[in-house]
Automatic annotation (TrEMBL):
Classification via SUPFAM superfamilies: Thioredoxin-like, TPR-like
Pfam families reported for this sequence: Thioredoxin_7 (PF13899)
Name of protein: Thioredoxin domain-containing protein
Signal sequence segment: 1-18
Keywords from the named record: Signal
Thioredoxin domain location: 1-129
Annotated organism of origin: Dokdonella soli
Length: 431
């Protein structure tokens, strides 16, 4: 779906071949300036199931070694203060995200969400080899390059800046617009930008209209994300009208499951979204039997691949958790959580998720034990998320003094970095 970028030669110094990834973007940029090499920022977080898919299935092997040889790789934790700041600066709104900067910090391009190897590396290689900033592509677009127009539009779409992208396109000369608008890729990006614009404006009618056009195009594995937008925007429509909108997507999603997800080598890296979106469409159509069937199939497939070893594939293990939760198979989920905690003992994620689940089901005492275990391993932004649930549990147990101490401690540790989360935490203490 993306246009092919022109391949321009870059020179890289030999010292990069043995380089280790760094965890600071500023350190990576300093290193890149000395090496005259681009920076690849790999944004991830311990709660990001898609990040584990990429780490396990994509960011390894000879292709990854080749990337490390010609770039400075910055492995950035989005929950850290530095990571959160760069996420905001680069307008990265979801994980995983891979952003390529030149040595001066100008963006060359980005890749979002999970990608199979056969898509990720050609895309990344094209970004690195192109060595053009967004401003360069805008100049080429103004000169009439369809590929450059599509690249710029895709960049706006990746940031969710629908209005800005459409305004930029409207600023092109009329003859350039007329010619570019007939290009398949350009037309699809324009529809996707209109969808982003409508979503940002909370214009449900606009979302529905744009989503219909986008879903009629070749969007491959992005289909469930667009269908999710269609589901939300169509909630208030009359039942018959909504059914007419969703029924074709039910057919398309079922085909995706059969041809791209429930196969030996799935074509779509993010299998979870296709499963959950299909179940949501079934529910919206009132087809509870199909809803249960797709979730049961996904649960069975995940268990079959994992066997007794949840540590075999964290992405798949977390998919199993989500499928059980969506299917409301609570007893099985409660049996799974301790196994997940044992399989992944070094981070806060599963004690936190299990504690939050118990708290939502009215079991604050049991939840607090797990949340305190999570707090021992939490850091940065996720320390505040854990504290929020601890406060809720303590307040439910009528332990206001302890709740206030939790807030005071976490603010001393991390409060200066995350003002929005701090405000919510203080509100939870008062409520």
């Amino acid at each position: 779906m993306k246009p092919i970028r022109p391949l321009l030669a870059l020179a890289f110094v030999g010292s990069l071949h043995a380089a280790e990834p760094v965890s600071s973007v500023d350190a990576a940029l300093a290193k890149a300036k000395k090496a005259h090499a681009p920076v690849l920022i790999d944004f991830s977080a311990p709660w990001c199931y898609s990040c584990y898919f990429m780490a396990t299935h994509v960011l390894n092997g000879k292709e990854w070694k080749a990337v490390e040889a010609k770039t400075v790789v910055a492995e950035v934790d989005a929950d850290s203060p530095d990571g959160a700041a760069w996420m905001k600066k680069l307008e990265v709104k979801a994980l995983p995200a891979y952003v390529v900067l030149n040595e001066n910090g100008d963006e060359l391009g980005r890749i979002l969400a999970e990608q199979p190897r056969e898509k990720f590396y050609p895309n990344l290689d094209g970004i690195i080899a192109g060595a053009s900033t967004l401003d360069d592509f805008k100049r080429k677009a103004a000169a009439g390059s369809f590929d450059a127009v599509a690249t710029v539009l895709g960049s706006y779409q990746a940031r969710g800046e629908g209005r800005a992208g459409l305004d930029w396109y409207k600023g092109l000369q009329e003859n350039v617009q007329a010619a570019a608008g007939s290009n398949h890729y350009v037309a699809l990006w324009l529809d996707r930008l209109e969808l982003a614009r409508a979503a940002n404006a909370k214009d449900d009618a606009g979302v529905v209209a744009a989503a219909k056009r986008v879903l009629a195009g070749d969007i491959d594995c992005d289909r469930p994300y667009v269908v999710d937008q269609l589901l939300e925007a169509s909630e208030k429509l009359p039942k018959a009208e909504r059914t007419a909108l969703l029924a074709p997507q039910k057919i398309a999603l079922d085909a995706m499951l059969s041809k791209q997800v429930f196969i030996a080598k799935p074509a779509c890296a993010d299998q979870r979204s296709t499963v959950i979106t299909t179940a949501d469409v079934d529910a919206a159509l009132g087809d509870s039997a199909s809803e249960s069937a797709v979730l049961d199939r996904a649960i069975g497939a995940a268990r079959g691949q994992l066997g007794a070893n949840l540590g075999k594939d964290r992405n798949l293990a977390d998919n199993l958790r989500v499928y059980l939760a969506r299917a409301k198979r609570t007893d099985e989920l409660d049996a799974l959580y301790p196994k997940l905690i044992a399989a992944y003992p070094d981070d806060y994620v599963y004690p936190y998720r299990y504690g939050r689940s118990l708290l939502e089901r009215g079991q604050p005492a049991a939840a607090l034990l797990l949340l305190e275990k999570a707090a021992d391993k939490a850091y940065g932004e996720n320390r505040l998320a854990v504290a929020m649930q601890r406060v809720k549990a303590l307040k439910a147990l009528k332990r206001q003094d302890d709740a206030e101490k939790v807030v005071a401690d976490v603010l001393e540790q991390n409060g200066q970095w995350f003002p929005e989360q701090v405000a919510k935490l203080k509100d939870a203490l008062k409520s």
